[in-house]
Amino acid sequence: MAHEDCIFCKIINGDIPSAKVYEDDKVYAFLDISQVTKGHTLVIPKTHTKNIYETPPETASELFSRVPKIAAAIKERYNPIGMNLLNNNEAPADQSVFHLHIHIIPRYDDGDGFS
Ligand code: 5GP
Ligand code: ZN
Questions:
Q1: Which ligand is nearest to the CA of 17?
Q2: CA atoms within 13 A on the CB side of 10
Q3: Which domains does the chain carry?
Q4: pLDDT in tens, 8-38
Q5: Least CB-packed of 32, 43, 79, 114 within 10 Å?
Q6: In the chain, alpha helices (H)
């Protein structure tokens, strides 16, 4: 169920536009508005959950099960030389949007991949 005032729920609903990378009935992936590197993507469950502590195992399983396919698609599209997966939980650990998300951050030999 969508969570009032959650920007990622609004992105899932299409109330806020986003650059879609992948979507199915359980998961949505889209480009991070602040591209740390080229192709920086966020993968989120369609069910609102604040962070890893509040995530039911089934939701976590659905989310993580899509990551290899999405990572492979990003690798194919952007041709990075490596890739980091990152998940921040709570503000002291740099969580700024309180809807669970996994960052996929491609890595390039020139840095951010834009040059
Ligand atoms: P966090 O800091 O919570 O781990 O990551 C949240 C991410 O969401 C940040 O990297 C930030 O750039 C991204 N973000 C915040 N608002 C929006 C938005 O409206 N659209 C998109 N595409 N990304 C957003
Ligand atoms: Zn949400």
A1: 1
A2: 9
A3: 7-107 (3.30.428.10)
A4: 999 999 999 999 999 999 999 999 999 999 9
A5: 114
A6: 7-13, 57-78
